[in-house]
Protein backbone atom coordinates (compact mmCIF):
# COMPACT_ATOMS: atom_id res chain seq x y z
CA UNK A 1 0.00 0.00 0.00
CA UNK A 2 2.82 2.34 0.93
CA UNK A 3 4.66 1.70 -2.36
CA UNK A 4 1.49 2.53 -4.32
CA UNK A 5 1.04 5.79 -2.41
CA UNK A 6 4.69 6.69 -2.95
CA UNK A 7 4.35 6.02 -6.67
CA UNK A 8 1.23 8.19 -6.89
CA UNK A 9 3.00 10.96 -4.99
CA UNK A 10 5.97 10.71 -7.36
CA UNK A 11 3.73 10.98 -10.42
CA UNK A 12 1.86 13.90 -8.86
CA UNK A 13 5.10 15.74 -8.10
CA UNK A 14 6.50 15.10 -11.59
CA UNK A 15 3.29 16.39 -13.18
CA UNK A 16 3.38 19.47 -10.96
CA UNK A 17 6.97 20.18 -12.05
CA UNK A 18 6.18 19.64 -15.75
CA UNK A 19 3.12 21.89 -15.60
CA UNK A 20 5.15 24.62 -13.90
CA UNK A 21 8.03 24.18 -16.37
CA UNK A 22 5.66 24.49 -19.32
CA UNK A 23 4.28 27.77 -18.00
CA UNK A 24 7.71 29.24 -17.24
CA UNK A 25 9.37 28.08 -20.47
CA UNK A 26 6.50 29.49 -22.55
CA UNK A 27 6.69 32.84 -20.77
CA UNK A 28 10.46 33.26 -20.48
CA UNK A 29 11.98 30.93 -23.06
CA UNK A 30 14.69 28.36 -22.45
CA UNK A 31 17.68 30.70 -22.02
CA UNK A 32 16.04 33.03 -19.50
CA UNK A 33 14.52 30.26 -17.39
CA UNK A 34 16.33 29.06 -14.28
CA UNK A 35 15.55 25.81 -12.52
CA UNK A 36 14.86 27.97 -9.46
CA UNK A 37 12.10 29.74 -11.43
CA UNK A 38 10.45 26.41 -12.17
CA UNK A 39 10.76 25.27 -8.54
CA UNK A 40 9.14 28.50 -7.32
CA UNK A 41 6.33 28.19 -9.89
CA UNK A 42 5.70 24.61 -8.75
CA UNK A 43 5.82 25.55 -5.07
CA UNK A 44 8.67 23.12 -4.43
CA UNK A 45 12.23 23.46 -3.16
CA UNK A 46 15.05 23.39 -5.70
CA UNK A 47 16.63 20.19 -4.37
CA UNK A 48 13.37 18.28 -4.91
CA UNK A 49 13.13 19.52 -8.49
CA UNK A 50 16.73 18.44 -9.13
CA UNK A 51 15.92 15.04 -7.66
CA UNK A 52 13.21 14.42 -10.26
CA UNK A 53 14.85 16.20 -13.21
CA UNK A 54 18.63 16.42 -13.26
CA UNK A 55 18.93 19.27 -15.76
CA UNK A 56 17.00 22.12 -17.29
CA UNK A 57 17.87 20.74 -20.74
CA UNK A 58 16.27 17.35 -20.11
CA UNK A 59 13.17 18.94 -18.62
CA UNK A 60 12.89 21.30 -21.60
CA UNK A 61 13.23 18.43 -24.06
CA UNK A 62 10.51 16.49 -22.26
CA UNK A 63 8.18 19.52 -22.22
CA UNK A 64 8.72 20.14 -25.94
CA UNK A 65 8.09 16.49 -26.83
CA UNK A 66 4.90 16.36 -24.77
CA UNK A 67 3.70 19.70 -26.17
CA UNK A 68 4.29 18.64 -29.77
CA UNK A 69 2.69 15.27 -29.13
CA UNK A 70 -0.37 16.94 -27.61
CA UNK A 71 -0.53 19.31 -30.58
CA UNK A 72 -0.12 16.54 -33.15
CA UNK A 73 -1.96 13.52 -31.76
CA UNK A 74 -5.39 14.44 -33.13
CA UNK A 75 -3.86 15.85 -36.33
CA UNK A 76 -2.54 12.40 -37.25
CA UNK A 77 -6.04 10.91 -37.05
CA UNK A 78 -7.64 13.79 -38.97
CA UNK A 79 -5.15 13.86 -41.85
CA UNK A 80 -5.36 10.08 -42.29
CA UNK A 81 -9.15 9.86 -42.27
CA UNK A 82 -10.22 8.14 -45.49
CA UNK A 83 -13.85 9.22 -45.15
CA UNK A 84 -13.41 13.01 -44.91
CA UNK A 85 -12.71 15.42 -47.75
CA UNK A 86 -9.86 17.94 -47.76
CA UNK A 87 -12.21 20.76 -46.76
CA UNK A 88 -13.71 18.66 -43.97
CA UNK A 89 -10.20 18.00 -42.68
CA UNK A 90 -9.52 21.74 -42.73
CA UNK A 91 -12.75 22.39 -40.79
CA UNK A 92 -11.75 19.91 -38.08
CA UNK A 93 -8.15 21.15 -37.85
CA UNK A 94 -9.24 24.81 -37.62
CA UNK A 95 -11.81 24.01 -34.93
CA UNK A 96 -9.51 21.87 -32.80
CA UNK A 97 -6.37 23.97 -33.02
CA UNK A 98 -8.01 27.32 -32.42
CA UNK A 99 -9.52 25.80 -29.26
CA UNK A 100 -6.15 24.25 -28.35
CA UNK A 101 -4.19 27.49 -28.71
CA UNK A 102 -6.85 29.46 -26.82
CA UNK A 103 -5.96 27.34 -23.76
CA UNK A 104 -2.21 27.90 -24.29
CA UNK A 105 -1.90 31.42 -25.76
CA UNK A 106 1.86 31.61 -25.15
CA UNK A 107 2.52 28.42 -27.14
CA UNK A 108 2.90 29.91 -30.67
CA UNK A 109 5.41 32.55 -29.51
CA UNK A 110 7.24 29.90 -27.49
CA UNK A 111 7.65 27.62 -30.51
CA UNK A 112 8.59 30.53 -32.77
CA UNK A 113 11.22 31.94 -30.41
CA UNK A 114 12.77 28.59 -29.48
CA UNK A 115 12.65 26.79 -32.82
CA UNK A 116 16.02 27.96 -34.14
CA UNK A 117 18.01 27.19 -31.03
CA UNK A 118 16.39 24.42 -29.00
CA UNK A 119 13.24 22.89 -30.49
CA UNK A 120 15.03 22.14 -33.76
CA UNK A 121 17.18 19.55 -32.01
CA UNK A 122 14.08 17.75 -30.75
CA UNK A 123 12.26 17.97 -34.09
CA UNK A 124 15.11 16.17 -35.84
CA UNK A 125 14.17 13.02 -33.94
CA UNK A 126 10.46 13.15 -34.82
CA UNK A 127 9.19 11.46 -38.03
CA UNK A 128 7.00 14.43 -39.01
CA UNK A 129 8.19 14.58 -42.63
CA UNK A 130 7.46 10.87 -43.17
CA UNK A 131 4.03 11.16 -41.58
CA UNK A 132 2.96 14.16 -43.65
CA UNK A 133 4.28 12.92 -46.98
CA UNK A 134 2.48 9.58 -46.56
CA UNK A 135 -0.79 10.98 -45.21
CA UNK A 136 -4.22 10.58 -46.79
CA UNK A 137 -4.39 14.37 -47.09
CA UNK A 138 -1.36 14.50 -49.38
CA UNK A 139 -2.79 11.71 -51.50
CA UNK A 140 -6.07 13.61 -51.78
CA UNK A 141 -4.23 16.75 -52.89
CA UNK A 142 -2.39 14.80 -55.59
CA UNK A 143 -5.63 13.18 -56.79
CA UNK A 144 -7.33 16.59 -56.92
CA UNK A 145 -4.51 17.86 -59.13
CA UNK A 146 -4.69 14.78 -61.37
CA UNK A 147 -8.41 15.41 -61.92
CA UNK A 148 -7.65 18.96 -63.03
CA UNK A 149 -9.42 20.49 -60.04
CA UNK A 150 -6.33 22.43 -58.99
CA UNK A 151 -2.76 23.00 -60.02
CA UNK A 152 -0.26 20.58 -58.60
CA UNK A 153 1.65 22.25 -55.77
CA UNK A 154 4.00 21.10 -53.06
CA UNK A 155 1.83 19.89 -50.17
CA UNK A 156 3.99 21.95 -47.81
CA UNK A 157 2.48 25.12 -49.33
CA UNK A 158 -1.00 23.87 -48.46
CA UNK A 159 -0.09 22.96 -44.89
CA UNK A 160 1.74 26.27 -44.35
CA UNK A 161 -1.28 28.20 -45.63
CA UNK A 162 -3.75 26.39 -43.39
CA UNK A 163 -1.59 26.51 -40.27
CA UNK A 164 -0.70 30.15 -40.97
CA UNK A 165 -4.39 31.08 -41.10
CA UNK A 166 -4.85 29.39 -37.72
CA UNK A 167 -1.68 30.32 -35.86
CA UNK A 168 -0.55 33.73 -37.17
CA UNK A 169 -3.40 35.73 -35.56
CA UNK A 170 -2.37 34.38 -32.14
CA UNK A 171 1.26 35.36 -32.78
CA UNK A 172 0.20 38.84 -33.91
CA UNK A 173 -2.47 39.22 -31.20
CA UNK A 174 -0.77 42.15 -29.37
CA UNK A 175 -0.37 44.06 -32.65
CA UNK A 176 -3.92 43.29 -33.79
CA UNK A 177 -5.45 44.29 -30.47
CA UNK A 178 -3.26 47.37 -30.09
CA UNK A 179 -3.85 48.57 -33.64
CA UNK A 180 -7.61 48.12 -33.55
CA UNK A 181 -8.44 48.78 -29.87
CA UNK A 182 -9.87 45.25 -29.82
CA UNK A 183 -10.55 43.66 -26.45
CA UNK A 184 -9.48 40.12 -25.54
CA UNK A 185 -13.10 39.02 -25.72
CA UNK A 186 -13.48 40.51 -29.21
CA UNK A 187 -10.28 38.81 -30.36
CA UNK A 188 -11.49 35.41 -29.15
CA UNK A 189 -14.83 36.01 -30.85
CA UNK A 190 -12.99 36.76 -34.09
CA UNK A 191 -10.98 33.54 -33.75
CA UNK A 192 -14.23 31.63 -33.31
CA UNK A 193 -15.45 33.19 -36.57
CA UNK A 194 -12.29 31.97 -38.31
CA UNK A 195 -13.33 28.36 -37.63
CA UNK A 196 -16.03 28.93 -40.26
CA UNK A 197 -14.08 31.28 -42.51
CA UNK A 198 -10.85 29.29 -42.91
CA UNK A 199 -12.47 26.36 -44.79
CA UNK A 200 -14.26 28.88 -47.05
CA UNK A 201 -10.96 30.62 -47.83
CA UNK A 202 -9.20 27.32 -48.51
CA UNK A 203 -11.97 26.26 -50.90
CA UNK A 204 -11.62 29.62 -52.67
CA UNK A 205 -7.87 28.95 -53.00
CA UNK A 206 -8.67 25.68 -54.77
CA UNK A 207 -10.94 27.47 -57.22
CA UNK A 208 -8.33 30.16 -57.87
CA UNK A 209 -5.73 27.47 -58.62
CA UNK A 210 -8.00 25.36 -60.81
CA UNK A 211 -6.55 24.32 -64.14
CA UNK A 212 -8.18 26.04 -67.11
UniProtKB/TrEMBL annotation:
- What this protein is called in its record is TetR/AcrR family transcriptional regulator
Q: List the InterPro entries hit by this protein, alphabetically.
A: Homeodomain-like_sf (IPR009057), HTH-type_Tx_Regulator (IPR050624), HTH_TetR (IPR001647)
Looking at the record, the residues that make up the HTH tetR-type domain are 11-71
- Record feature DNA-binding region, as residue ranges: 34-53
Record's keyword terms, sorted = DNA-binding, Membrane, Transmembrane, Transmembrane helix
Where on the tree of life does the source sit, at the highest rank? Bacteria
Specify the taxonomic lineage. Answer: Bacteria, Pseudomonadati, Bacteroidota, Sphingobacteriia, Sphingobacteriales
Ranges annotated as spanning the membrane:
155-176
**SUPFAM superfamilies, per database record:** Homeodomain-like (SSF46689)
Amino acid sequence: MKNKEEEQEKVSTEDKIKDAAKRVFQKKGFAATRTRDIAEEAGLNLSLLNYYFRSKEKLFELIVLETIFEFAKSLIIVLNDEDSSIIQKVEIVADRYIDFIKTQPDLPIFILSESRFNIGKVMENLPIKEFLSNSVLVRQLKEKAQRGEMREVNYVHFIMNVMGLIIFPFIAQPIIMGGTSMSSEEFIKMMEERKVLIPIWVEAMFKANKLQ
